[in-house]
Amino acid sequence: MNLKSALLIVIASLCLHRTVIAQNSSTLITNVRVMDGTGSPAVKGSVRIKGDIILEVGNLKPNPNEKVIDGKGQVLAPGFIDAHSHHLGDLQKNPNGLSTSNQGITTVVIGQDGESYPMDSLEKDMKEKHIVANIASYTGHSSLREEIMGEKNLFRNATQAEIDKMKNILSKELSKGSLGLSTGLEYEQAFYSNRDEVLQLAKVAAAANTRYISHIRSEDVTMADALDEIIQIGKITKMPVQISHIKLAKQSDWNTASSILAQLEKARAEGVQITADVYPYTFWNSTLRVLFPARDYTNMASAQLAVTQLFDPSQSYIVQYAPNPSYVGKTLSAIAVERKESDAQALMSLVAIAADFKEKHPGYKGSIEAIAAKSMNESDVAKFIAWPYSVICSDGNGGGHPRGYGSFTRVLGKYVREDKVISLENAVHKMTAQTAEYLGIKDRGIIAVGKKADLVLLNPETVIDHAAILNSHALSTGIEMLWVNGQLVYAQQKATGKKPGVLIKR
Fold first, then answer.
1. Cα–Cα distance between 191 and 186 in angstroms, integer?
2. What is the pTM of this model?
């Protein structure tokens, strides 16, 4: 062996030794207040992580060659789990993942409002398009309807033969790790389904020991009937059921959150495992069409009801409008003035123009129209957040509603520190362990030995959202560091470039 060969062997050996050390090395996050997610107060200590696992928790001393991160006395909590999210598309398009990371989210739960991807497709995408956050998914009722009935044949009840085909697909998806069945009964794709169709599918989900989550049929005019439907599904199937983004969106119903919660408490006392998720805003983001509960888009009386009871047109902003992008960022009232129409007439006009655009552009991808509509009040939102059986969600993506960037930090800043609606321990519990429990996720949501190392370091004195309707991508402050599966993905309001997210299966 010549000298050159010997040197190459030595160099290779050193590189291998360093690789082994790197693979076997651990990280110690020290000088933190550990808030473990159970609702217990924070305890001073340290957390050691190795690979994607929490190795030790307590008063720990650094090991030789161990990376040490000084938490500077801040709170270390489990990474937040977004119970109702639409972030997947944004995370795939924007691999820095700032929409979720800046608010402390490590896991997003998709397949919401009845729309989902097949589990096989999700698994393939997660392997090919690495992203920052973990993904878990429900199977959507509307997606099942579209597959079996056809996209243009949804405005009717399904036949029994069609329901049977949907049940078969749902059963297969649940066996592949779907969390359960989701419905979006207020949207056209599922609006014309009857209770029996939904119940038959829910029974399939119950038989698989999964759960049901629903954007109920109405959040305004016929909300009483919509609540009765989800309660009955829970009562008949005996499986957990969850109301998506619970709200009171009809002005004459404002300040009645206590009575709604009393109704849910009564159902729970009767054995119904009903829960809810909630986002911390008084305005929602959806299509203009949902403002017509009877789907009578040319009915002036219905339009007038919408602008007087269902939303405030002077505080509601168009956030997507493909037929005329100049409308984006303007209130509906401002557009009405521009068009020389009343608010009600402008609402009907925009719906009609969008429908015509869709007809003429069948291949158009994305939302043709969307509005951030002011339709709730703070008192009701606060009561829903404080309900012991609610968890926190964003219902967000990377789009025009600030909830996509600021939901979790808004809860921590406004509803915890400023308004004192709930304690920090309770808020963290709702964002972590309680959500994991409701979803059936066993290995995340708590800081404990053997759990996955999804962690957020936050400053409870400064954490706050900054996103707004006209500046929806503004980053939160107070989220200092974020780890997903043991890898640091966010620090000092910047992405690290790591994309360790995995698909979480039931």
1. 5
2. 0.92
